Amino acid sequence: MRPLSPELFALHRVKNILGAYDRWCQGTSFRSRGPLLAPQRCLGGAITEATDDLYLRANLVALVTGVLGESSIPLWNDAPERTYADVMDVVERSILAAEREWAQAA
Fold first, then answer.
1. Helices marked H in the chain — which ranges?
2. Residue 30's domain spans which residues?
3. For 46, 55, 66, 74, which has the most beta carbons within 10 A of its beta carbon?
4. For the segment 87-98, what is each residue's pLDDT rounded down to a tens digit?
5. How many CB atoms lie within 10 A of CB 104?
6. How many independent structural domains does the chain possess?
7. Is residue 87 in a domain?
8. Is 11 exposed, middle or buried (0-12, 13-18, 19+ CB in 10 A)?
9. pLDDT one-digit tens code per residue, 19-53
10. Is the Cβ–Cβ distance between 88 and 8 less than 8 Å?
């Protein structure tokens, strides 16, 4: 079995970081909730948290904006009508896009 691409691994980390409704936020990339609760992150903040590699981050942003059809992840994330379900749908579709790219590179 072939290992995950760095993009796939990082996107699964994004999914885990945003793993529950109360771990997603709008209006800021990071919101601390004290020592007993996981912090909240927006989609862009979760991408930043997922990897320290700037090149990989740029690839993730390109993947996600390609799925979104939008050029700004923060503006999309912070739209008043945006929901947690919308965000997780984009994460799932980004994972599928990365899987297709990885399979084609084989």
1. 6-17, 43-50, 54-68, 73-78, 84-105
2. 6-105
3. 46
4. 999 999 999 999
5. 7
6. 1
7. yes
8. buried
9. 999 999 999 999 999 999 999 999 999 999 999 99
10. no
What lies within 8 Å, CB to CB, of 59 at 6+ separation is 6, 7
Phi/psi for 18 (5° steps) reads -95, 25
**Tokens (6 digits) for 40:** 């909240």
Is position 1 within any domain? no
pTM of the model: 0.93
- Please choose, from the candidates 47, 89, 40, the residue with its C-alpha nearest in 3D space to the C-alpha of residue 68: 89
Total length of the chain: 106
The residue type found at 17 is: I
In the beta sheet, which residues pair with residue 24?
41
